[in-house]
Structures are given as structure tokens and as C-alpha cells.
Amino acid sequence: MNALKDIQGVIFDYGGTIDTNSRHWAAVLWDKYMEHQVPVDKESFREAYVFGERALARYPFVQPWHNFHDVLSIKTKLQVEWLAEQRKLTMDESQLQSYATKVADSCYGYVLDILQITRPVVEKLAEKYKLVLVSNFYGNIQTILKDFGLLDFFDEIIESSVVGVRKPDPAIYGLGVDAMGFVAKNVLVVGDSFSKDVVPAKAVGCRVAWLKGEGWGGEVIDESVPDVIITDLAQLPALL
């Protein structure tokens, strides 16, 4: 409890935190690929996922008016088309579209279920604290927050594609602290990624609640760095 004493404001990450409650999006998508029997191995999927994320960061496939279902549809289409080009999936266009649609629809339903847990947490904290969102996203995070009934809970939105800084650069969390208007040590950052949330937030002097969950590998973890570790966003209000 003392670790989170004197908190005046809370900065939330979005993807993997509010929308999946600690699960890396690659893990969520892979589960849905398996659920819908998309005939691809995990390593090939991993490569397709990385390709899709890089393409979305580089090219304006996502527009400001796109909601999250739109984003998922774009992501999955990029992934299955890459898999087909690499001859890891059938080249039949109708079958590819069927895979993409089923996975996107299923992921969207998954998020709606998770929000039944996470939205009340955000709402409860907004009653007591100033909230700021800091997210690596595609320029449409406000549309998504509005679609999910979350927008009004946040006083400020810091989105990477808008401000020109991406996690893990600590500067994006510096912008979050500036938007908060409090001393960094009195600001709590809540995020699921150790390397993209915990480390840069600590670098600018914030306290951190690490939402530890199902990652996707490749991170070097030091559990002494975050101030608290939780495994479900619903645990957070009791710590504040």
C-alpha cells in the first residue's frame, strides 16, 4: 500500500492493458487463429504479426475515423495476405477473407468481454484521479475510446502517431507527465509491457503498476523495477 502513497494522477497504457487486461495482442490473435483453425504454424504467424505491425506503423492504412473492429479487420487482412504471399496459406482470396473476418470478429468480441472488467476500473479511478492515456497507436485512439465508452474518463490523450514519439522512448511518458501537471513521483503509470511501459515510465520518475500477464517473449524482466505488480486491472483500485 505504501508503494502507491500520495498518487495524484494515473497514466494508463491502452493496448494490452485496458483492452486485453494484460494479454499481449499477438497472444490473443494466435488463440483466435487456432480457434478458427487457420492452418498456419506459430512461427509463421509471429512473422505475419510483426509484418502487419510494421506496415501499420509505416503506412496510413488506419484512418482517424476507424473504430477498433476496423483496425482488427485491417490487421488480420494484412497478416493473411502476407502469409499467402509467403506460400504459408492458400492463395484463394475468398478463403483468406474468411480467415481474416472470423479472427477479427472473434477478437472484437473478446475485447467487449474484457471491457466488462476493465471499464469499471477506469471509471472508478476517474472519479478520484486525473487520468491521462499514453499509447502507441495509429491516429484513431479517440475514435476507439469513444466507441468503447471510455473517452470521457481521460483528461488528456497522448498518442504516438500524433505527438511523433513512440514507446519505449521515455519522452512519450514525459509528455504524459506534462499533461498531468503533477510531479512525476506523484503520477502512477499502469501498463502491461515491461520494456515499453515499466522501464520508460520509471526513467521519467513515475511510480509504476505493472500489469503482468501473458507476454509474447523476448523481454528481459526485473521484477524489482515496478512499484507494484498486478495480474488483473481489477486489483488496482484496492491499492490506491
UniProtKB/TrEMBL annotation:
<dbReference type="InterPro" id="IPR023214">
    <property type="entry name" value="HAD_sf"/>
</dbReference>
<dbReference type="InterPro" id="IPR023198">
    <property type="entry name" value="PGP-like_dom2"/>
</dbReference>
<dbReference type="InterPro" id="IPR036412">
    <property type="entry name" value="HAD-like_sf"/>
</dbReference>
<dbReference type="GO" id="GO:0016787">
    <property type="term" value="F:hydrolase activity"/>
</dbReference>
<protein>
    <submittedName>
        <fullName>HAD hydrolase, family IA</fullName>
    </submittedName>
</protein>
<dbReference type="InterPro" id="IPR051540">
    <property type="entry name" value="S-2-haloacid_dehalogenase"/>
</dbReference>
<dbReference type="Pfam" id="PF00702">
    <property type="entry name" value="Hydrolase"/>
</dbReference>
<keyword id="KW-0378">Hydrolase</keyword>
<dbReference type="InterPro" id="IPR006439">
    <property type="entry name" value="HAD-SF_hydro_IA"/>
</dbReference>
